Sequence to fold (359 residues):
Amino acid sequence: MKKSITYKIIILAALLLFVFLKPGMSQKSKSYVIGFYNVENLFDTFHDIGKGDFEYLPDGANEWTAAKYNKKLHNMATVIRDMKEDNKAWHAVLGLSEVENRHVLEDLVSQPEIADANYQIVHFEGPDYRGVDVALLYDPTKFQLLEEDAIPYNFDSKRITFTDTVDMKKFLTRDILMARGMLGGEMFAFYVAHLPSRAKTDERRCRGAEIIHDHAVELMKEFPGIKIVVMGDMNDNPTDRSMTKFLHGREKIDELKDDDFFNPFIAMYKNGYGSLAYRGAWNIFDIIMVNKNLAQAKEGTLKIVPIVKKKYYGRVFHKPYMEVQEGQYKGTPFRTFQGGAFIGGYSDHFPTYIVVTNK
Fold:
């Protein structure tokens, strides 16, 4: 009699597990913060041979001393720490732009404010004429790196006719960083970009976007089901053609085709949000977008979710101390320099982030 009752209990428990843990669902809920931050000229005080970093030397135009450099490191670490406090978790992955070299990254991750995160670094020394690169920080307990690559910029486009060809052979800009690995047991790829300046025609930014998209499409063919995040300082707004035509950024998740990316910052930009201000107007150049596999993920697997007002899938992070407090620029990012003078601020950009979860 006891054996029969025990057997029935076991069968009932198995049925309940089958009902509540559907195929593809994880028994443990997981959430990860994925962000991007343009840290505005994070230079050390030493000259890198072959780079135009002279203004960021102690005897350069900015009189870039160890004290100023250490203040900058502290400021950047403070912002990253505050994002952790808001989210109750360190970023699983954080893309950066405007970093000079690996040395400044090592100094940054060792700052006491964020040392506990044990961030690991993905970085390649790039050809940018100013000497700034992109990089990726990641939490090795959350993201397991399998592959890293630097994708060079080139003009080999069949869709874009370049009108400003004068300096094409001498044009040096940032590589695009790609890191592939496992996040929460699922395969992900992260692209980090800092597309050409708006001082150039938008054709060059369109080409950068095209390079990213072409590479991502090939990666999706090689690894069916891979989830992809593209992030960076695009030097364009979410509605500009580099983002919509060449990176296939779309405003709505339910309208995505296989090669499209969901860009949560389109809706935010249209509704007045901004990550940087220029001549009185707000822009969102600090963009994060995800492929269809991540936007329309199966139940129980990692998927992008709304995090602002239960409708916006991205967040522009800023606190009062990161903003100018008075005058005509009140509310805009409190930057490192203003009018050539060191004012000890943070960055001319606010960071952005998204959250993915299997809940």
